[in-house]
Amino acid sequence: MSSAKKQYKRITIKSLMEMKANGEKIAMLTSYDYTMAKIVDNSGIDIILVGDSASNVMAGHETTLPITLDQMIYHASSVIRAIEHCLVVVDLPFGTYQGNSRQALESSIRIMKESGGHAVKLEGGSEISESITRILSAGIPVMGHLGLTPQSIYKFGTYTVRAKKEAEAEKLKQDALLLQELGCFAIVIEKVPAKLAEEVAKSLRIPIIGIGAGGGVDGQVLVTHDMLGMTQEFSPRFLRRYANLFDEMSEAFKNYIKDVKSTDFPNKKEQY
Ligand code: KIV
Question: Does ligand 1 come within 6 angstroms of the Cβ of 53?
Answer without folding.
Answer: yes
